[in-house]
């Protein structure tokens, strides 16, 4: 079961931190990325970290989310942009309006031309973005994946919201508790290529092989493509195709909101358990009207803030991405780089009727 994270700060505690100021930052100039010796990715990893190096002023970094019209990713990127203002850098968000596999490629190429210091990417496909990302790295641009990883061969760090294993297994446990460990279940995912969802689903499937789930059966993984309408229709399709369905896990904030909306207005309300990963603001009405009992998430503001500081630490030479390196992410404190350049924010948090009003994101 998910537990409260020590890093999880309530909306109340965060008042004033996120002002969406889009750090205008006049007067600072960035070092030209092209004036640095083009470092091959392998050489970057072998560089030596200087934990005491100051964060360089005037850094230019860009967030490239899966898609720009996803409220969860908007919150996350805004927090990262605000963090850049704290360390006197300039950050922006650019990205596609759909989460298809290759939709981010042209944006990466433009960011390379702009000589950004770092590109932060929530990858729609682990491999489709690899060529351009490695081209960026060969020009001295640091690449940090966040939320949804790119292949580890083409990024320097991955800022993960939580242990992927914990997310996957906990989602199954949460649903199982609500359906007495019995019945047919389905997953409503994002896109078929999404690295984060696919990793979580693998752990869900593995969790389901344990004896305590012998009476539960995963009948289908459907894909709503992180598109509200498609997710809504896929939910309808699942319920029509599997009349005995007992529960749906939607490990996507877009998917769970659409699934809850469909169920809420249908004859299935109260008969089907909908759970997964959602934002409190999108899920509140469905918790209040009894469609959803509980769901989970981490704090997207903290994830964006951490990713921003991680990128700045990388560009400033405080860390190189090697396992065991430590860095301070502003108000969130110290983090350690784990295996394969992964940095974990912390455990997710469970929302229900007792706490959903305490949060505003
Ligand atoms: C959606 C996206 C995102 C994922 C969240 C939980 O917003 O798919 O990548 O992390 O859900």
From TrEMBL:
BP term (GO), one: rhamnose transmembrane transport
Localization (cell): Cell envelope
Keywords: Signal
Coiled-coil region list: none
GO CC field: outer membrane-bounded periplasmic space
Domain Periplasmic binding protein: 61-318
Leader sequence residues: 1-24
InterPro entries: Bact_Solute-Bind_Prot2, Peripla_BP_I, RhaS, SBP_2_dom
GO MF annotations in UniProt: carbohydrate binding
NCBIfam families (alphabetical): RhaS (TIGR02637)
Name of the molecule in the record: Rhamnose ABC transporter substrate-binding protein
Recorded name of the encoding gene: rhaS
